[in-house]
Amino acid sequence: MADHMRADLVRDALDLAVKRGLTSEDAIFHADRGSQYTSGLFRSTLAGHGIRPSAGRTGSCFDNAVAESFFATLKTEIGTTVWNTRDDARRDVFAYLGYYNHDRLHSTLDYRTPHEARVGYRRGLTLVA
């Protein structure tokens, strides 16, 4: 969370995800056509991590339906709080993300948490020669 939407913000977020082992070799990063996602800095970051970029057509709401659904859920479940500071907002949003990923069951994931689905997906992979 920052007070800007520059490319270095999404680069730093991607670097953190890679550092935490939250990506795989065949990862694809799908985003809209915002300037931060189409910047040379971000494209080179993707390439450096071996992640393929993906962007949908301009004006297509279907490409980002999952992300839009998540943000609608976040806004509904965290409430309409007005925080005094960015640090207060950051603390509450990160606490919510912990709940969302580790405790909240999702019907589209067969009533598992995102964490359970991710761990189960990795375990279910079979490598072939």
Automatic annotation (TrEMBL):
Name under which the protein is recorded: Transposase InsO family protein
The Integrase catalytic domain, residue ranges: 1-122
GO biological process: DNA integration
SUPFAM superfamilies: Ribonuclease H-like
Protein's organism: Saccharothrix ecbatanensis
GO molecular function: nucleic acid binding
Entry superkingdom: Bacteria
UniProt cross-references to Pfam families, sorted A to Z: rve_3
